Amino acid sequence: MKKMKRLAALFLAIVMVLAMGMTAMAVDGTGGDDSSEKTYSISVKDGAEIPENHTYKVYQIFIGTLDSTGKILSDIEYGKNYKGNGTAETAYEEAKTITDANKFATDITVEGEPVAELTHTETSAPLPASGYYLVIDVSKVSEGADQVSKFIVNVGGDIEIEPKVSRIPDFEKTVDGKDATVDYASGDHIPFTLTATMKEDVADYESYQLTFTDELSDNLSYDTGSLKVAYKVSDSAEAVEYKSGEYELNVKGKNITVSMSDIGNEARVPGAKIIVTYTATLDAGVTSGEVAKNSASLEFGNNGDTQGVGKTTTDIVKVYTFALDFDKVDEDGEALDGAGFTLYAEDGTTVVATIEAGEGKTNFVFDGLKAGTYILEETTVPDGYNKMENKTIVISASVDGENVTVNDIDDWTKSDFVFTTDIQNYAGVQLPSTGGIGTTIFYVVGGIMVLGACVLLITKKRMSARE
After folding, report:
1. Which of 70, 380, 384, 461 is positioned for an S-S bond with 357, CB 3.0–4.6 A?
2. What is the rounded radius of gyration, in angstroms, for the C-alpha atoms of the chain?
3. Separation between Cα atoms, residue 3 and residue 5, nearest integer Å
4. Distance of CA 57 to CAs 43, 133, 327, 449, 452, Å?
5. What does the alpha-carbon distance between residue 313 and residue 140 come to, in Å, rounded to a whole number?
6. Pairwise CA distance, residues 328 & 426, whole Å
7. Separation of alpha carbons 447 and 449, rounded Å
8. Which long-range contacts (CB under 8 A, 24 or more apart) does 450-455 make?
9. Which residues does residue 375 pair with via DSSP β-bridges, in sequence order?
10. Under DSSP, is residue 86 helix (H, G, I), strand (E, B) or coil?
């Protein structure tokens, strides 16, 4: 009997590990007789929520027969996912040696598939028998999955859990405060921001570490020296910049890592924001469409914490650019070479790009453009043709999250982020000749007048001689 009481006390202590990361309670417990034939359920308490990036995997550790109170487990055997620590002869012998429930939950090794899983959408699952189960909170990330915490729950009836998700900081990466942008062109320096917002439990820590991991896409190049780290204790407070020695920056290729062993006493308050900002250059020669897809994630917590260091899901921002693609043709729609063009910004003087004329060149593409108003000028005109009038072109799009809707341009055909058209030149007009019949008449009349003068002169001389 004393052994049974000690065992009961032991498992009651194990249940207290729930305070580490979740609250559990028995609802309408049905213990008291042979519970091996009964089925139970584990579910998320109404009003609670499992984050989309988390899965709670449930493993069976010990099974047995519950007493009439639904709390004391007898006839203890190992469950489906646990075969013992290798030193105890029986499950009962091992169970009675457990004195630290936290350590047992942390050190235990399970095998096989879990008997149940809870997710953001699947918030309830059946359990096969009464006993003790290990629940592992798994944070899904882009490469594999990390164990955030482990808990022991006592199943003597249907179980409800209330995950303590408040420990997970809010994290987002933005470009100009948005998830996507159409406001930057090839060669521009694009500003990115990573923000971690502290939750209520951060004040319980004596130190709190953060690691920001950022991965640039191929078309982006980090601007050396542009990165800064700051914190704000509230949205209305002034940002306070961290000194370089208070964080560690590591840039390796396209990967940027900012590590902080402690965010500092002033920042360890609920609602505080830790903010990383930097710029990256959009490489020259980018094509149109989704030219950059930039991702980042956050590790948080403290290695000394019983729940260890957690990791958020990856947040992504996107950069889109546009292209103007047109063919030069004559008035009959036939290809026409000898033209060159310059694209100006809206002011009509700032040159965005120039494409020179070339022999046989009839197609022109201005790529890597941001949304905005442009002036297109024909700066080299094919010989014998009239110059095209300058064209005003407005590229516009609306951004909703990561999605972009591109608006039409009059007289251009849109295909995703590319606009195409034909631009015509008209041949010059050949003016009629003014030196034809009019000149001949002058020659004839002039000749007659000269001839008449000669005749008149000879006649006068003869008349004078007769006199």
Report:
1. 380
2. 41
3. 5
4. 12, 10, 60, 121, 126
5. 7
6. 11
7. 5
8. none
9. 344, 392
10. coil
196 and 298 Cβ atoms separated by less than 8 Å: yes
Per-residue pLDDT, 374:
98
pLDDT in tens, 394-434: 999 999 988 899 999 999 999 999 999 999 999 876 555 55
* Measured CA distances, 426 to 389, 411, 412 (Å): 11, 18, 20
DSSP 285: T
What are phi and psi for residue 115, nearest 5 degrees?
A: -80, -15
State pLDDT tens for residues 359-395.
Answer: 999 999 999 999 999 999 999 999 999 999 999 999 9
Q: What is the DSSP string of 288-351?
A: SEEEEEEEEEEEEE-TTSTT-EEEPPPEEEEEEEEEEEEEEE-TTS-B--S-EEEEEETTSSSE
Q: Tokens 């290990």, residue?
A: 134
The answer to whether 297 touches 310, Cβ cutoff 8 Å, is no
CA atoms within 13 Å, Cβ hemisphere of 113 = 3
Phi/psi for 274 (5° steps) reads -100, 120
Burial class (CB in 10 A: 0-12, 13-18, 19+), 419: buried
Domains within the chain, CATH numbers bracketed: 2-166 (no CATH), 170-318 (2.60.40.740), 321-424 (2.60.40.10)
Which tokens belong to 66?
């519950």
Amino acid at 307: Q
From CA 350, how far away is CA 375, in angstroms rounded? 10
Least confident piece of the model among 323-327, 430-434, 453-457:
430-434
Phi-psi region of 84 (alpha: psi -120 to 50; beta: other; left: phi over 0): left
**336 is written with which tokens?**
């026409």
Cα separation, 391 vs 343, in Å, equals: 10
Residue where the block lists tokens 């990330």: 141
What number of other Cβ atoms are within 10 A of residue 414's Cβ?
Answer: 13
Instruction: Answer for the pair 214, 194: CB distance below 8 angstroms, yes or no.
Output: yes
pLDDT tens figures, 14-24: 443 333 344 44
The DSSP bridge partners found for residue 231 are 240, 274
Give the contacts of 129 (CB within 8 A, at least 6 positions apart). Answer: 35, 36, 38, 40, 60, 63, 155
Q: Alpha-carbon distance 100 to 425, whole Å?
A: 87
Q: Which residues lie across from 374 on neighbouring strands?
A: 345, 393
Contacts of 213 (CB under 8 A, 6+ apart): 255, 256, 257, 296, 297, 298, 299
Six token digits for residue 258:
């900012």
What number of residues does the chain have? Answer: 467
Strand 220-222 versus strand 116-118 pairing type? unpaired
The two tokens of residue 333 are 């729609």
